[in-house]
Write a structure and sequence with these properties.
Layout lengths: L1 H19 L3 E5 L6 E9 L4 H10 L4 E5 L7 E5 L5 E5 L6 H4 L4 E4 L12 H19 L5 E3 L7 H7 L6 E3 L20 E2 H13 L8 E5 L7 H15 L4 E3 L2 H13 L1 E2 L3 E3 L7 E5 L2 E5 L4 E3 L10
Parallel strand pairs: 2-3, 2-10, 2-11, 3-6, 7-8, 9-10
Antiparallel strand pairs: 1-14, 4-5, 12-13, 13-16, 14-15
Bound molecules: zinc ion (ZN).
The site of zinc ion has 5 residues, from strand 2.
Keywords: Signal
Protein name: Polysaccharide deacetylase family protein
Amino acid sequence: MKRLIILIFSSFLFCSSCKQKPSFIDFTYPDGKHKALVLSYDDGTIQDIELTQLLDKHKLIGTFNLNSGYIGVTRGWPQKNGDTIYQKYVSKDSLFIIYKNHEIAVHGELHKNFTDITNKEILKEVNTDLEILTQLTKREIISMAYPFGSTNDSIAKLISNTGIVNGRTVADTYKFSLPENYMIWNPTCHDSKALDYLSEYLEMDKQELSLFYVWGHSWEFGDTKRWNNMVEFCEKIGKAKDIWSVGNGELTKYLKAIERVEINEKKIMNPADNEPIWINLSTGIEKLKAGETIKIKTVANNVYN
Ligand SMILES: [Zn+2]
């Protein structure tokens, strides 16, 4: 009898300690979300005005990659068939209004093809953008899209020393996975294909971080069918409460913050100089602020390996 009482008592103690320490399941995006959306648009032409209004209407965030050398000008782009396409670029005094709710990023001062120019010229293209865009916006500029999507390992490495933390290509993956290299960030698809993948993403319910990464040019929306598709895409994805709409820079910062979190079988510790991060525990979603530690019982996945 005495043995039985001890056994019951120790089981009770064991279970109550289980209750106090939750199990770690996985990292999530803010508010426990597992899905994210990045909308990345290039060139900074005046059609961005209508696009940003559409995004604002649906509370979606875009990353707008600008060529600082063309801000406020009209430029003719010669085409292979002999025609010239004229582009009008947003003016510097309207940057604050147009991109108020959106990220501003680098796209090369003069939109040169990085695989056709020297390292010195590449650095000039990037650093001039960084300097001018920072000066005009008073913001921290950390993202870029490669002009023509052209890059390679050595270009990506070169640019990673400038303060840029992510570089987007145009090599569509048609997947919802996170990139292996933030500096060679291959998107899910161009916006002309985005509707084809929308239902799959809206219905997706995986316990892992995913990303729907759409890119394009607002000047392509002169085609009414494409514009209507974009309106439909934004209306539908804007209603999804489980998708984090985020700029590429903020997303990169968040993913890097997760990488810095220390985790073992007993605790999860967010370094004091880190961003807040969100975790999924057996007891629910928790926000772990910088410098905070949570004691855990077990780790459900071997995420720290
Ligand atoms: Zn471009």
